[in-house]
């Protein structure tokens, strides 16, 4: 019997497998988001990584446990009951999503601007701009900044800063590639909207 079909004692957290893409060209945001979600869920960050040795090193530095093999092998090896996919390349994400669904495992997928495979059981896109692609998804969609995946320590830090009435600082992380000009524009808009930032 598949591990996904086994009954779990009440109150016990499911075993979650994260599939993430990372590397110099793609950036490390997908990996960081998976590690942050694992921390928020209070589960180990077991990650099947699509990336270079440099990305593997970054994953280990984030405290991730790397899982090798293809989709079916990784799911069985970890005994995962849930798969979370954060990979903007639809073909790569689709292989993992379909493998999990064939064995009865639920799948959540994380996105930016609706990029990637939208065939999961739950779609989460914390982008500020709503992608028209999300409107065509057949699965439930959680979209908008209120669904952005943040490391719980960022939220705690913000609460402490707010309590002390210190200036609010905003970190803009746009992933790999030449996004510095866009980051500067975003920063200007944020400061124009709130002079205390």
The oligomeric status of these chains comes to single chain
Mean pLDDT: 87
Strand content: 15-25%
Could you say which overall geometry the principal axes of the C-alpha atoms support? globular
Helix content: 25-40%
Count of alpha/pi helices: 6
The radius of gyration over CA amounts to 18 Å
Helix and strand composition category: alpha/beta
Instruction: List unreliable stretches of 5+ residues.
Output: 1-7
Distance between the termini: 54 Å
Helix/strand order: EHEHEHEHEEEHH
Q: The biggest beta sheet, please?
A: 7 strands, parallel
Would you count the extended β strands for me? 7
Spatial arrangement of strands, main beta sheet: 3-2-1-4-5-6-7
Textual characterization of the structure:
The protein is α/β, with parallel strands linked by helices and 197 residues long. Helix content is 35%, strand content 15%. A seven-stranded parallel beta sheet has the order 3-2-1-4-5-6-7, sandwiched between helices. The longest helix has 14 residues, at 180-193.
